[in-house]
Each structure stands twice: as structure tokens, then as C-alpha cells.
């Protein structure tokens, strides 16, 4: 039996995606934007730390270390960058470029999970990755046109808001069912030092 923290990663990213949806809904340049800095810092730090751990230690079988670890690092760094940009009043355009590229990478992972039929539920897992990644692609035009074409920017933002809420719900469901199953399957687990 291997021990992983995918449930924590899913729960954390679900919270982060929901927070991003609220942040974009309220307006990325609103007075309340600074209120999101601690939440983005916390969720970004957890996603980055758990993702890096998974990337470097490979606790899961097969390709899952790449899928879960690297996608977690990508969103974690993006969240940390968002927190920093808000706190320093930096432009979101460079983050939009990073978000778009990260989105393309995670969409590729989602498609490959479905194509290779990875795991016990490849279709919902792959779709969750894809739905969570598409708003990253919308982040580039939303940030780039924020000043020059606010209507187009807001349209991209609304598309991202809807997808972020859907993805947050999908990952929250995955995390909850994961916790439900893990608590049962690990109830007899004994660490090496206690055997």
C-alpha cells in the first residue's frame, strides 16, 4: 500500500479554483482584490509543495506522478504569482501568458489520461483536468484586453468563471469521494515503526 496525498491536492485546488472564480467575478482590479492575497498564497503554497514532493519522490504508480504532481506545481506557482501581482499592483498580462501555457500543458495531460485510459475513471479525471485548465487559456486574453477592450476581457472572464466553478465542483467531489474511500482503506494501516 502506498500513501499519497492526492485527496489533499484535489481539495486544495478545488478551493483555489473557487477562490479564483470569486476573484474574477468581483473584478481583478476591484478594491477587494487585496483580500485574496492570503488565500492565493496559502493554496498556492500547498499546491506547489505537494506537487514538488510528488514530482521528486514519485509516490504513485505510473504516470500519475506527472499528471498530479506537475499540474499541481503549475497551478501552485500561478496562484503564488497572482498573490504577488495583486500585492504589488503588477500587470496580470505576464501571468496570463503563464496561465495560457500551463493550461495547454494540463489540457494535454487530461486528453492523454483519457486516451491511455489511466486509472479506474479516466473520462471524469481527464475531463476535470481539461475543465480546470481551459480558464488558464482564457486568462491571457482576459488580462491582455483588460484595458483596451473591456467587453472582450469580461466575456473571457465570464467563460473562465463558469468553468472554474464547474472544475472546482468536480475536484471537490473527487476529493470528498477520495477521503471517503481512503479513510476506509487505511483504517488498518500501520506505519513501519509501529509494526
How would you describe what is shown here?
The chain is mainly α and 195 residues long. It has a single domain, classed as Alpha Horseshoe (Serine Threonine Protein Phosphatase 5, Tetratricopeptide repeat), CATH 1.25.40.600. It contains six helices and no strands. The protein is globular, with a radius of gyration of 17 Å. The mean pLDDT is 91.
Number of helices: 6
Helix-residue proportion: over 70%
Mean pLDDT: 91
| CATH homology-level superfamily | AmiS/UreI transporter
* H/E element sequence: HHHHHH
How many strand units?
0
Please tell me what the overall shape is. Answer: globular
CATH architecture group name:
Alpha Horseshoe
Note the gap between the termini. Answer: 14 Å
Total individual domains: 1
CATH class: Mainly Alpha
Secondary structural class: mainly alpha
Q: Low-confidence runs (pLDDT<50, min 5 residues)?
A: none
Report the CATH topology name.
Answer: Serine Threonine Protein Phosphatase 5, Tetratricopeptide repeat
Radius of gyration: 17 Å
Taking the sheet with the most strands, its summary is: none
Strand-residue proportion: under 5%
Please outline what is shown here:
With 195 residues, the protein is mainly α. Helix content is 77%, strand content 0%.
Which secondary structure elements does this structure contain, and how are they paired or packed?
Blueprint: H1 6-26, H2 37-57, H3 64-88, H4 93-116, H5 122-144, H6 150-185
Helix pairs in contact: 1-2, 1-3, 1-6, 2-3, 3-4, 4-5, 5-6
Amino acid at each position: 500500500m502506498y500513501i499519497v496525498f492526492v485527496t489533499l491536492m484535489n481539495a486544495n485546488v478545488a478551493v483555489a479554483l473557487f477562490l479564483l472564480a470569486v476573484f474574477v467575478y468581483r473584478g481583478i482590479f476591484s478594491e477587494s482584490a487585496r483580500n485574496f492575497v492570503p488565500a492565493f498564497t496559502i493554496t498556492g503554497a500547498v499546491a506547489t509543495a505537494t506537487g514538488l514532493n510528488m514530482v521528486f519522490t514519485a509516490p504513485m504508480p505510473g504516470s500519475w506522478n506527472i499528471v498530479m504532481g506537475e499540474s499541481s506545481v503549475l497551478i501552485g506557482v500561478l496562484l503564488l504569482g497572482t498573490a504577488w501581482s495583486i500585492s504589488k499592483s503588477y500587470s496580470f498580462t505576464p501571468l496570463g501568458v503563464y496561465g495560457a501555457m500551463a493550461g495547454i500543458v494540463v489540457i494535454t495531460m487530461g486528453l492523454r489520461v483519457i486516451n491511455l485510459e489511466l486509472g479506474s475513471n479516466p473520462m471524469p479525471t481527464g475531463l476535470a483536468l481539461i475543465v480546470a485548465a481551459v480558464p488558464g487559456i482564457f486568462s491571457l486574453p482576459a488580462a491582455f484586453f483588460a484595458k483596451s477592450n473591456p467587453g472582450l476581457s469580461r466575456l473571457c472572464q465570464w467563460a473562465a468563471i463558469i468553468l472554474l466553478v464547474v472544475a472546482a465542483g468536480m475536484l471537490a467531489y473527487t476529493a470528498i469521494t477520495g477521503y471517503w474511500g481512503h479513510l476506509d482503506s487505511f483504517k488498518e494501516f500501520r506505519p513501519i515503526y509501529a509494526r
